[in-house]
Amino acid sequence: MKPADGIATRFSALAAWLVRDPRLRAVLSNSSLLTIGLGAVAASNIVTLTIIARTLGPETLSIIVLVVAHVGVMERLCATEVWQTFVKFGADARERDDDDALARLAGFCFSFEIVAVLATVALSLTLAKPVAAALGWPNEVAALVPAYAWHCLVNFINTPIGVLRSFGLFRTLAVIDIASAVVKVVLVVAAVLADAPLVAYVVALAAATGLRGLLMLIASLRALNRQNAAPRFAGLAQTTRTPRLMSFTFSCYATSVSTLPINFLDVVVVSKTLGASAVGGYRLMLQVTQLFDRLINPIYQAIYPELAAMVARDGLKPALRLGAKSIVGLTAVVAVLAAALAFTTEIWIPLLFGAAFSFLIVPTKVLFAVKTLVAMNAIVDALCLASGRAWLRTAASATSNLAFVVALYVFSDRFGLIGAASAFGVYVLCDVAIKSVGIWLAARRADEGTPSPKSATPHAD
After folding, report:
1. Closest Cα to residue 213, out of 243, 253, 236, 179?
2. What is residue 387's three-state secondary structure?
3. Which of 10, 67, 117, 193 is most buried, taking the most CB atoms under 10 A from its CB?
4. How far, in Å, CA of 458 to CA of 162, rounded?
5. Is residue 234 classed as helix, strand or coil in its secondary structure?
6. Nearest Cα to 400, choosing from 257, 292, 272, 262?
């Protein structure tokens, strides 16, 4: 037997083992739809960054990255991540066929998001100049922030994502992602053909992002109306007096804020250690390797509602078995893809981005190696959240992000972009270790017959 035939046989056996579980088969079916949509988003991000990089060069690309990062930090500070609340408590309300509780839950989530959107825009505009001056960023960054921040006013995505995931409308999510991805590429290409100024590229990115949020909002409201659960704001005071719901919501918010280093503050750190001009190359490297995050994210989106329902219905142990099986299969797939891309970076990086970005070849290899852990990280996170251990998740996220930002500062200052890539490994290993210990202790309590109050799905009313 040829080596290639042996590898193909092993992967066929692995695939057969994975799809034997009907719940995992349903998850993979739903996630395949999301993969198409998020794959289109990932492709459009790479295409648009490639076009901008080749047209404007590394330094101008860095200006755009800093604008997006500034607004992203403010958005993360204000975003409540209420989609997780809707999925968690919505599953319980739907189990009880309680449309009234579902409607009040939707009103609660949308109320939080309205406040978050307004606060994001206000902070982005108010702090643009002080932040740029304090960090030594180019003057163009503060001037371009208003051209990008406006999209937040229509970017209601948190609650809509939770609604669409809960109702199994994965095809709708995929269509919206594809549409917004196409619009983004078209607008950026139009800016290039028109030889437009830098602000036109920023507006193009904002318009595509805003369109995605607006379409998700419309689709989610239609889905709620069909369920006879249109958002109800009248019972908001009663809903906010539910301790478990509020605790879960604020723990998710705290977790979201704690992820600032891994999502946006990394750009700030790199701009301090390597200079603002290096930010464009760093972000380009991340965008390419985020292919694996985009590949795993649909699995996460699809498996989290399934795990939450399993915990509510059957307890933690069956959910753990499904999670373990998912980790094994997905890590094998990611490892093969990462190896193939890492060994060919010398070919496709200069070809795609130009010879000016050849300095990314070795750091990208290192980051591809780290990304083989992304499947394990995502599934463990979904298990932690579905089991109701939101505060454990918050503690793990805060600790791992702190470890990441320290490692990023030290490693990038000493080893450049190779060190920056290595810092992501510190983050993933720390995050997975803490959450795994917490889930293992919960499983032991379940074996001993000791009920854990946090493992029960709390009611929304």
Report:
1. 179
2. coil
3. 67
4. 17
5. coil
6. 262
Give the DSSP letter string of 147-215.
Answer: HHHGGGGG---HHHHHHHHHTT-HHHHHHHHHHHHHHHHHHHHHHHHTT--HHHHHHHHHHHHHHHHHH
For 268, left (φ over 0), alpha (ψ -120 to 50), or beta?
Answer: alpha
- Quote the CA–CA distance of 195 and 8 in Å, as a whole number: 48
Give the CA distances from residue 336 to residues 228, 340, 343, in Å, rounded to whole numbers and listed in that order.
46, 6, 11
CB 184 within 8 A of CB 48: yes
pLDDT tens digit sequence for 149-200: 988 888 777 888 888 888 888 788 888 888 888 999 999 999 999 988 999 9
Query: Which CA distances in Å does 348 have to 47, 125, 351, 352, 368?
Result: 13, 38, 5, 6, 14
Is residue 312 within 8 A of residue 95, CB to CB? The reply is yes
Question: Tokens representing 320?
Answer: 């753990």
Give the length of the chain: 461
Say yes or no to pLDDT of 456 above 50: no
Joined together, the tokens standing for residue 205 give 């990115």
**Residue 451: band (very low, low, confident or very high) from pLDDT cuts 50, 70, 90:** very low
Q: What is the pLDDT of residues 27-79, one digit of tens each?
A: 656 556 666 666 677 777 778 888 888 888 888 888 998 999 899 889 888 87
Q: Is 457 left (phi over 0), alpha (psi -120 to 50) or beta?
A: beta
Distance, CA of 340 to CA of 442 (rounded, Å) = 38
Distant-in-sequence, close-in-space partners of 243: CB < 8 Å, separation ≥ 6: none
Closest Cα to residue 442, out of 372, 389, 366, 394?
389
Residue type, 80: T
Furthest C-alpha separation in the chain: 69
The closest alpha carbon to 328, from 34, 4, 24, 23, belongs to 24
Matching residue, tokens 């860095």: 62
